[in-house]
Design a protein that fits this description.
Layout lengths: L13 E3 L5 E6 L10 H9 L3 E4 L9 H4 L4 H18 L2 E7 L1 H13 L4 E4 L13 H4 L6 E2 L10 H11 L1 E2 L1 H16 L8 E6 L8 H9 L5 E6 L12 H13 L3
Parallel strand pairs: 2-3, 2-4, 4-5, 5-8, 8-9
Antiparallel strand pairs: 1-3, 6-7
Helix pairs in contact: 4-7
């Protein structure tokens, strides 16, 4: 039978050629999509950067497709995106949101990019049930949860809400858990300048995530910014302009 899976338009990957020979890889989060990182990407492209925003496998399609993917698929995909960007540019920086922040740290350990920025990086997770996912995954592949539309979303976001945001996926969350453990173990190998942005109002990733990163990374080429009111997706909250400004300054200014 022919596979009817299609990628939603808002989830299509993006790559924009820049003018300064510097590349930036931007990685979206768990059950996220490239479109939510597009505003940040556009700002960085406006500053001359070549910007790549890949789509993590299984994301932006449907849950049947999503349930087939694992952590190695997500990591291998962004690693290949990094290598592709490296062929276009003299240097590459990496940044990621939530799971994207974890993948950013794993890329930093392997490739040592010029700089990294971690946006609400999921190196700690507030929900205590998250720690049970390595066991629960064998019993329950998915669990229904509440997601309510506010009535203003475009149709494709409503599709994402029905396919992804209305469920917990223990098997995929167990893969996130595995990636987090690997990233924590390898923090001592991260040697590139690191920007961390977290929010006191984030109900998903606690401020403890920043402490874990700061204690684990051996160098002091680091800056941490604590936002006050931003939700977990800090690139779309009411402090997003501050987020964008911090990232631009981090990339543009020499240490």
């Amino acid at each position: 039978m022919k596979d009817s899976t299609r990628v939603l338009k808002i989830a299509l990957p993006e790559i924009w050629e820049g003018t300064n020979r510097k590349g930036v890889l931007i990685i979206h989060g768990f059950t996220g999509y490239p479109g939510e990182m597009k505003e940040l990407g556009g700002i960085l492209h406006g500053h001359g950067y070549t910007v790549s925003i890949p789509r993590l496998p299984g994301h932006g399609t449907n849950q049947k497709n999503f349930l087939k993917t694992r952590g190695r698929d997500w990591y291998n995909h962004v690693a290949n995106a990094y290598l592709d960007l490296q062929t276009r540019c003299d240097s590459v920086s990496v940044m990621g949101l939530s799971l994207g922040g974890v993948l950013t740290l794993l890329l930093a350990e392997q490739f040592n990019p010029e700089k990294i920025a971690l946006l609400a990086p999921a190196m700690a997770v507030s929900d205590p049930l998250f720690q049970l996912t390595p066991l629960v995954q064998f019993l329950i592949p998915r669990m229904k949860k509440t997601w309510e539309t506010d009535g203003t979303e475009e149709e494709e976001k409503k599709v994402l809400g029905r396919e992804y945001w209305s469920f917990h996926f223990p098997r995929q969350l167990a893969q996130v858990h595995k990636l987090i453990r690997r990233a924590r173990k390898n923090l001592g190998r991260v040697d590139c300048p690191t920007l961390i942005l977290l929010s006191e109002a984030d109900s998903t990733v606690p401020l403890k995530a920043g402490e874990i990163i700061e204690k684990g990374i051996p160098h002091n080429k680091m800056r941490q910014v604590i936002l006050k009111t931003s939700p977990h997706v800090i690139v779309s909250g009411d402090e997003k302009e501050q987020v964008f400004q911090e990232i631009v300054q981090w990339l543009n200014n020499p240490l």
